[in-house]
């Protein structure tokens, strides 16, 4: 069904016209991006979302037996270590001794233990940041949490 364009709005693809998009973008100001706030491993809690950390890879990625594409990597900084879950081919960037930048990760509780999870929305990239020593004595993933109401 073909209809004539009436005043250039909402008929015949008017929403695709440049003037329409200019009106919409001028009404909605752009949202300024915030700088990420990086934290230390020992501050990770069970309900944490949007976790940003600089870490050193401590152990080679290990394949999780119950899954085809899930790997676990032990990472740490000067405050402690934690297990990180990575899917697909992203685990290949995790080499022992390499410093990584993890952004927008979240915590998943697996059988009462913390796992830092890197999903498709999180960034996992090598970093030039310095992580001199790693405190292997404090294992954040080694602490069991109990659900209370």
Key terms for this structure?
7 strands; mainly beta; single chain; 149 residues; five-stranded mixed β-barrel
What is the topology?
Blueprint lengths: L17 H10 L23 E7 L4 E2 L6 E8 L2 E8 L11 E12 L2 E6 L4 E4 L23
Parallel strand pairs: 4-6
Antiparallel strand pairs: 1-3, 1-5, 2-3, 3-4, 5-6, 5-7
Describe this structure in words.
The chain is mainly β and 149 residues long. It has a five-stranded mixed β-barrel with strand order 1-3-4-6-5. The chain is elongated and about 65 Å long.
What's this entry about, in short?
With about 150 residues, the chain is mainly beta. Helices cover about 5% and strands about 30% of the residues. A hairpin with a 6-residue loop joins strand 2 (about 60-65) and strand 3 (about 70-75).
Q: What is the radius of gyration?
A: 23 Å
Helices and strands, in N-to-C order? HEEEEEEE
How big a fraction of the residues is strand? 25-35%
Number of helices: 1
What is the end-to-end distance? 59 Å
Largest β sheet strand count, sense and barrel closure: 5 strands, mixed, barrel
Poorly predicted runs are none
Number of E-type strands: 7
Helix content: under 10%
* C-alpha geometry: elongated
């Amino acid at each position: 069904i073909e209809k004539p364009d009436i005043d250039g709005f909402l008929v015949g693809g008017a929403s695709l016209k440049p003037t329409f998009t200019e009106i919409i973008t001028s009404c909605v100001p752009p949202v300024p991006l915030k700088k990420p706030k990086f934290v230390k491993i020992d501050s990770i809690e069970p309900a944490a979302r949007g976790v940003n950390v600089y870490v050193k890879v401590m152990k080679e990625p290990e394949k999780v037996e119950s899954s085809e594409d899930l790997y676990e990597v032990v990472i740490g900084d000067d405050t402690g270590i934690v297990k990180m879950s990575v899917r697909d081919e992203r685990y290949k960037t995790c080499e022992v001794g390499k410093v990584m930048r993890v952004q927008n990760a979240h915590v998943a509780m697996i059988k009462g233990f913390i796992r830092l999870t890197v999903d498709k929305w999180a960034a996992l990239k090598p970093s030039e940041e310095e992580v001199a020593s790693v405190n292997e004595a404090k294992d954040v993933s080694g602490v069991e949490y109990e659900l209370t109401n």
